[in-house]
Amino acid sequence: MADKESIKETHNYYLNTPMKNEPFMLRGSNSLEWGIKNRLSNIFNTDSGRTVMLAIDHGYFLGPTAGLERIDVTIVPLLPYADTLMCTRGILRSTIPPTFTKGIVLRASGGPSILKELSNEEIAVDIEDAIRLNVAALAVQVYIGGEYETKSIHNMTRLVDMGNRYGIPVLGVTAVGKDMARDAKYMRLATRICAELGASYVKTYYVDEGFETVTASCPVPIVIAGGKKLPELDALKMAYNAIQQGAAGVDMGRNIFQSEAPIAMLQAVRKIVHENMTPEEAYEVYQSLKTSKSKHQNPK
Ligand code: R5P
Fold it and tell me: Which protein residue has the closest C-alpha to ligand 1 atom 6?
C-alpha cells in the first residue's frame, strides 16, 4: 500500500515545456499502430533509421543452401552483428537461441520447392504462432507478373490484415522469376503494389539504372536483397549505391554467409548502412577484420 505520510506536495508540470510530438523515423509509417511502430523499431536502428537484416531463409525452397548447411555453426556466431534476422520458424525454434532479442522477421509464405513453380505459394504460418514466437515482422513473397501473381498478392493482403489485428508489420518481398526483367520499371511496379496493398516495408533487388525512382515512388521503406554472391567490394558498392539512392537498409544473405569472412563482411556492410562509409573505406574495414581474425586463428 502506498505510504500516506510525507507525500511530496510540490508538483512540477513543466508548463513551459510543450510535449514532444515527433514523427516516427520511417517514411510513410507515421499513422501506423503503436505495436507496429514498436516492432519496426526492433528491425530498424532508431538513430540511423536503417537496418542490416541477415537473411537466412533460403532453405524454405532451396534446402541446405551453401553456407547454411549448419546454421548453428556458421550463422549463430554472426547474430551479434546483425540488426535483425530473417528466417523460417523451423530454423528459429530448432537453432536460434531464444536469448537473441533483436527483431525476427519470420518467413511467412512457402509451398513450392525449387523443383516446382515458385509463385504457387501459400501462407505458411498461423498468426498465433507468429505471436507465440514474438516476431517483429512477417515476410511474404509477392510474384508480380508471375504465374500465381494474384494468389501471392492475396497471401500478402491476408497477412497484412492479420498483422494489423495484432500489431505485426508485414515485409512484402518482391520475387523476380527466371523470365522477369530486373529493371527499374519492374521494380517500381512491384514495390508500389506491395506498398499500396499494405506492406509496412518492401524488399526488392537493386538495379543499376534508375533505382532512385524505385525508392522515390514507394511510399514505405525499401530494403535490398543481396542476390547472388559477388566479390566483396562489388557487394559493398551495391549496398552503398542502394543506400545513397534512398534504400533504408539491406536484407542480405549469400553475400554475407558465403563470404570468406562473414563476420568481417557483415561489419563492413554495417559501416555503409549506418555510417555512410564509402565502399572503398568499408572494404578496408573488411580486409583488416578478415586479416586480424585469420592471424588470431592461425598464429605463426
Ligand atoms: C529469397 O527468396 C530469400 O527470401 C532471401 O531472403 C533473399 O533472397 C535475400 O537473400 P540474398 O541476399 O541471398 O539474395
Answer: 55
